[in-house]
Amino acid sequence: MKQKFIVMSADALVVEDLKILETLPNYRRYVMGGARTKSMLSVYPSVTYAAHTSMITGCTPGKTGILSNFETLVPGKYDWVLERKFVKIPDLFTAAKSAGLTTASIFWPVTGNHRDVDYLINEWPGCAPDIPIAEAMKEEGSDQKTLDIVKMYEKEMLRTGVHPGCDYFVADCAAEIIKRYTPDLVILHPANVDGARHASGVFSDAVEQAVKETDDMIGIVCRAAEAAGLGGKYNFVLVSDHGQLDMKRIVNVNALFADLGWIETDSRGNVKDWKAWAISQGFSSYVVLRDPCDSDFKEKAERTLRELIKDGLYGFGGVLNEREARERYGLYGKFSFIIETDGFTGFGDDYKHPAVPVQGYDSADYRQGRATHGHMPEKGPQPVFCAKGPAFKENYIGAAGKIYDLAPTLAKAMGIDFFDCDGTALTELLK
Fold this sequence. Notes:
The protein is α/β, with parallel strands linked by helices. The chain has two domains: 4-245 and 379-429, 3-Layer(aba) Sandwich (Alkaline Phosphatase, subunit A), CATH 3.40.720; 248-360, Gyrase A, domain 2 (2-Layer Sandwich). It has helices spanning 18-21, 25-30, 48-57, 61-64, 92-98, 133-139, 144-158, 167-181, 192-200, 205-227, 253-259, 295-311, 322-329, 406-414; strands spanning 4-9, 35-37, 40-41, 103-106, 119-121, 185-188, 234-239, 245-246, 249-252, 263-265, 271-274, 276-280, 284-289, 316-321, 337-341, 345-348, 371-372, 385-388, 396-398, 401-402. The protein has an eight-stranded mixed β-sheet with strand order 5-4-6-1-7-18-2-19, with helices on both faces. The chain is globular and about 65 Å long. The relative contact order is 0.21. The mean pLDDT is 93.
């Protein structure tokens, strides 16, 4: 029997969490004692959908076209980027399909209606009790075989109503697919750790509980592999996409722009014209210019943004222009600048409120909880890469890698050709 691969991306899991996992039964049995890296470096901005697309393509956000959790960098438009059609380049699913392998994706971001995934349950951030779950999944590409599994576990999703409270649904669906169909590659994405960090801070009792739940999910999918007769023939890979930082305050960048005259409002407070608009990524913010060809305003805007760094009043830790973002992080697209946090100031989008509002935390908006991300990847706690199985070395710790090393590493381990990419196969982890 050829080797199988199960990949779980535990959103926002960081190296420090491994100390907890090392005390828990499923991690100890199914992951500990394998190979791992010292840490992994995320992409910039370190947000979930950009990161996961880079992980599965092996390329930085500029090449993938996924710069955010949202479809486009359009002021005031926040549609989650669910569909595979928005990704500009091929991915590991396509490479596996070309090699004659079968695949499954459960809640992996930006895979909606992916033609090369055999068993697809796309992530659906908007799930609510009044939305038929199976209907939503069908619209995003689930076939009848997969929908039958969705219907088995949809009550688990309805228990809380919204993502990420549906992570046991993700694990149970993955387990059922493994038991019924034993795909060559199964990739799943629970996000309970990320949700706990947003709501309670980077390190807290709630986060520790979420890490314990992650251990439960490891057990669910690995026991399913054993029940399917795959004992000793499968590899389990635990990865993550980004860390988080604690947030102390919020600054509404567009309120600053309004003060500067870059956003104009009418007597009712509605926008009637704008020259620059900030689109928050949590601890960073894109700046989109209405006319990026207006070189005079572009120069003025950059000069002003850099002066705001010096002021030290509004949490600007840095500003990258298009050239700098491309050279440092492989980040390019329909923006002119990206603003970076000072390490504790999160960025909001509101243009009506005071620039520095007096308000509590709002964990309903993932960008404005007690902790968030979107910051430069080298800051704060780092993501993980841990693997155990016949393809990986035992009791081995390798050097730090990058999250977009995942796709070429899996391709190498699976013996399939992969496309040219920015990442590098972590061959030192492989037997």
